[in-house]
Write a structure and sequence with these properties.
A hairpin with a 6-residue loop joins strand 1 and strand 2 (62-67). The chain has 2 domains: 4-185 and 304-398, Zn peptidases (Aminopeptidase), CATH 3.40.630; 188-298, Alpha-Beta Plaits. The protein is of the alpha/beta class. The chain has helices at residues 4-27, 36-46, 107-123, 145-151, 212-230, 268-288, 308-322, 340-344, 381-398; strands at 52-55, 62-67, 73-80, 130-137, 163-170, 178-180, 183-186, 188-197, 201-202, 237-246, 252-253, 256-265, 292-298, 304-306, 327-329, 349-355.
């Protein structure tokens, strides 16, 4: 790649500012769709650049547009900005100052890397044979932020992107290395609520009641059997009941028990079959015991499906920037979920993972994303900045490779 040194050396020059921005965001994490402090920090970092900044009515997310000297293709690069509602138990000097909030999924690093990419590409805009749009997204953690920005018309606004590329950090891959795969890359995620209605009574006389507690327990075990016996092992799902709530004291049979769980799938076919099957299993087991089960499924993000052409482009660029060892093909999907999936339903693109295993820590044992002890190697952000920029340049020059 003729411009390898441009992007690698340039990203290293951007790293100190990216670290400062990342730590600033990490120290004051914000939740949901409206992130005024985070958005202001990004705007301050981009001040003085010749870019266009647009926002919609639904969120404080932004589209930053950088036009090259010639018209051509348009590529969308994305970084999410919101934190998680959880405590932080690290000892870093810039740990969260907001009780019950933490950047435990690396969105602070995503924002800092994407900001660095804006600045690096702006410095080299003469090389751009088209337009780069940078999607600074809010509300990824369950708030459908990407979908809100699509509904606000920000993604399709002229010039509409021809390709899309996103990045997500993970402490469980060696620092500075990238991994990706064609097709299903991350799972869909649905919330399951099951209410078992029985008949309350005295705990010493269960024959005069309809005890929903053992019925709920039977449903949980039956659902695990359903997963392994009825769902294709090569099109898997994960069905986890994570909470059971019922009863008030030791000698009262309650009238109802409620359960809460998650359903993860890597295809819409297995997702549909699982939703139908779990409803049938729960209802029929309850009926067999003279009770009733009410199942509610709150649909979440769809499967994140990577376009093979963009995966090929990203893998090739990664290897040219960082050598053969810089890219590791992902052997299987990850059962986490992403609302980047909504963008990939509209625009051919992909997401890659960037390894950020902390220095001196075996990546196999590093605290993962969503851990209260999650930390990352900030030096790896330079590789992320470089890949954002190089993928944008390659896509604008050549478009997607042939299948």
């Amino acid at each position: 790649m003729d411009n390898r040194e441009t992007w690698v050396a340039g990203s290293k020059a951007q790293l100190p500012d990216a670290v400062i921005l990342r730590r600033k965001i990490h120290e004051f994490p914000e939740l949901g769709l409206h992130l005024p402090k985070t958005t202001a920090a990004v705007c301050e970092a981009l001040s003085g650049l010749d870019v266009k900044i647009e926002q919609g009515p639904s969120t404080s997310g932004m589209i930053v547009t950088l036009a090259g000297p010639t018209q051509g293709r348009t590529v969308l690069l994305r970084g999410d900005m919101d934190a998680l509602p959880m405590p932080e138990d690290t000892d870093v000097p810039f740990k969260s100052k907001e009780p019950g909030r933490m950047h435990a999924c690396g969105h602070d690093a995503h924002t800092a890397m994407l900001t660095g990419a804006v600045k690096l590409l702006h410095q080299n805009r003469a090389k751009l044979s088209g337009t780069v749009k940078f999607m600074f997204q809010t509300g990824e953690e369950g708030h459908f932020g990407a979908l809100r920005m699509i509904e606000d018309g920000l993604i399709d606004r002229h010039p509409k992107p021809d390709g899309a590329f996103a990045m997500h950090i993970t402490p469980n891959v060696p620092s500075g290395m990238f991994t990706c795969r064609e097709g299903a890359f991350m799972a869909s995620a649905d919330v399951i609520s099951i209410k078992v209605m029985g008949k309350g009574g005295h705990a010493s006389m269960p024959h005069m009641a309809v005890d929903p507690m053992p019925i709920a327990c039977e449903i949980v075990m039956a659902l695990q059997a359903y997963v392994t016996r009825r769902i294709n092992a090569f099109d898997p799902i994960i069905l986890t009941i994570a909470k059971i709530d019922g009863g008030t004291t030791n000698n009262v049979i309650p009238e109802k028990v409620t359960m809460l769980g998650t359903l993860r799938s890597v295809s819409e076919a297995s997702r549909k079959m699982a939703k139908e099957g779990l409803t049938h299993v729960a209802q029929k087991i309850a009926e067999a015991h003279g009770a009733k089960a009410f199942v509610d499924i709150d649909e979440g993000y769809p499967v994140t499906v990577n376009d093979g052409r963009m995966v090929s482009l990203a893998a090739d660029v990664t290897r040219q920037l960082f050598g053969e060892r810089g890219y590791i093909p992902s052997p299987a999907p990850v059962m986490g979920a992403e609302d980047w999936s909504y963008v990939l339903q509209r625009i051919p693109g992909c997401m890659v993972f960037l390894g950020v295993a902390p220095e001196g820590c075996d990546h196999h044992h590093a605290a993962p994303c969503h851990s209260n002890r999650m930390m990352l190697d900030e030096k790896a952000m330079a590789n992320g900045i470089a890949l954002y920029a190089a993928v944008a340049e390659r896509f604008l020059d050549q478009g997607l490779p042939a299948k």
